[in-house]
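Saturday, quiet lab. Running sequence design on the structure tokens for the scaffold JK sent over.
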């Protein structure tokens, strides 16, 4: 027979835990001393206690383990295996969530480091008015988003005739009232031909501060934030009401490529 102290030593648990398991009917001794009330356990009970402690360490409640014992699952390895495999899946899902959280935290650390010290030198460009033909998305009335617009546009870009720069495409952001805006994915053209489902738009002459974004387009918003909050004021440049441009040329190697580059044309006051 084994005492509470011996079980506590074997499984590295407290005697208080074992007494609690007894009190709630989860793991009871086979014998209790009549005079001293000492609890005694048989060696055959050790595998059951190991499984109980393991399931508790996995986060299963005493109520669930007690039910597993009541219906015979706790002592049947074949019945217990599916439960453990299901719990393993939930652990993997949680690990995935924690890894995403860790990546987000690290990304914020990197972002803070960038905003603390990086300075991007803009290039000032006065660009004449030009016409684009392409497909439009509106943040108020259209479904999806800008990435989905490009997914629809790219397979049809060869339908556009009269491209002035066939290797350069534009993303044109057109501000509207009350914070609404439209976005056109297109090419600079003569504007003489417009495929079905597309539209033509003339971008007016503007003065731009040109910055180069490097890396995944998922971080494009961070670059835009830095431009307006840090780099424009640092160079005594004031943003102007107008249309900003994304310019995609041979340096664009994919939306998720960390080496990809696009130019951002931000309207500024001359």
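Result came back. Writing it out in full:
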């Amino acid at each position: 027979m084994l005492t509470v102290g011996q079980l506590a030593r074997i499984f590295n648990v407290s005697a208080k835990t074992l007494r609690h398991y007894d009190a709630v009917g989860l793991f009871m001794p086979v014998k209790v001393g009549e005079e001293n009330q000492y609890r005694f356990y048989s060696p055959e009970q050790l595998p059951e206690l190991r499984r109980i402690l393991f399931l508790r360490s996995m986060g299963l409640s005493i109520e669930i383990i007690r039910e597993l014992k009541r219906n015979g699952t706790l002592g049947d390895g074949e019945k217990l295996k599916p439960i453990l495999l299901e719990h393993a899946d939930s652990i993997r899902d949680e690990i995935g969530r924690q890894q995403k959280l860790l990546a987000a935290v690290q990304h914020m650390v990197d972002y803070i480091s960038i905003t603390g010290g990086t300075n991007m030198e803009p290039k000032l460009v006065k660009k004449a008015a030009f016409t684009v033909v392409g497909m439009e998305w509106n943040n108020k009335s259209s479904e999806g988003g800008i990435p989905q617009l490009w997914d629809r546009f790219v397979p049809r870009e060869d339908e556009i005739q009269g491209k002035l720069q066939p290797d350069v495409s534009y993303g044109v952001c057109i501000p509207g009232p009350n914070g609404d805006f439209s976005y056109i994915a297109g090419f600079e053209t003569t504007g003489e031909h417009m495929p079905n489902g597309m539209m033509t738009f003339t971008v007016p002459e503007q003065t731009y501060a040109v910055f180069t974004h490097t890396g995944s387009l998922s971080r494009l918003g961070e670059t835009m934030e830095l431009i307006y909050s840090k780099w424009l004021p640092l160079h005594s440049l004031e943003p102007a009401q107008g249309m900003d441009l994304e310019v995609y040329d041979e340096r664009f190697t994919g939306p998720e490529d960390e080496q990809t580059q696009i130019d951002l044309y931000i309207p500024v006051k001359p």
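Notes for JK: The first strand starts at residue 2 and ends at 3. The chain has two domains: 2-75, 123-267. Ask whether to fix the surface positions before the next round.
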